[in-house]
Write a structure and sequence with these properties.
The protein has five helices and seven strands. By secondary structure, it is α/β, with parallel strands linked by helices. The chain has one domain.
Length: 202
């Protein structure tokens, strides 16, 4: 990988730091050939509700006897996750300044019928990038590059499992908490609360 190119994981409405990396890159490659990793932003995000941090997770089918490539991970529609996510977003953000401007576009994608998780994530990423006015194209990887081989590799360090290496700028949030600003929420928290100014917080 040359300077200006980054390698990232696929992610479901990931946190601000994910798009901070994307906004500073010249070329963006989403990892398509890795094995799926549970409990990461690949199929989950966090929003801020009246009751605090809320996890939204897209249920997926996993192979029982072997590891499954991320590109082969299918969404499980037997669970009513779409309604749950959309209701949670509405409850959390319908009083935010820019909810009505952007929610319909996100709702349309989530309400769609995507067989594979990676396709849902990519469609949402394209919508977010357009809202943020980041004029970048995203490509998929064609081979798996081992960790440590490539510079600007963010596949495994933007994760809820470890401390963030990014310092997030504080932005207005709907619900005040005793601890004040809540970082590492889904990008939709920033978009619904700051609208056209969202790019300035990346």
């Amino acid at each position: 990988m040359m300077a200006g190119k980054i390698l990232i994981s696929t992610a479901y409405l990931p946190p601000v730091e994910y798009f901070t990396v994307v906004s500073g890159a010249e070329e963006i490659f989403v990892e398509k050939e890795e094995n799926y990793i549970k409990q990461t932003y690949r199929n989950r995000c966090y929003i801020l509700s009246a009751h605090g941090l809320q996890l939204l997770s897209v249920p997926v089918f996993l192979g029982s006897l072997h590891k499954t490539l991320i590109k082969d991970i299918r969404i499980d529609y037997s669970k009513r996750w779409q309604q749950v996510h959309l209701r949670a977003m509405t409850a959390s953000y319908n009083s935010s300044p820019y909810f009505e401007f952007y929610f319909e576009r996100i709702e349309k994608v989530i309400s769609g019928d995507y067989e594979f998780l990676i396709d849902l994530n990519m469609e949402l990423a394209e919508v977010i990038i357009e809202i943020l006015k980041i004029k970048k194209s995203i490509s998929y990887t064609s081979v798996f590059e081992p960790v440590g081989k490539i510079s600007n590799d963010y596949r495994y360090n933007i994760t809820p499992k470890q401390e963030s290496v990014f310092s997030e700028k504080k932005h207005p949030q709907v619900f005040n908490t005793t601890d004040g600003f809540v970082p590492r929420l889904s990008i939709i928290d920033l978009i619904f609360n700051t609208g056209p100014e969202a790019r300035n917080y990346l």
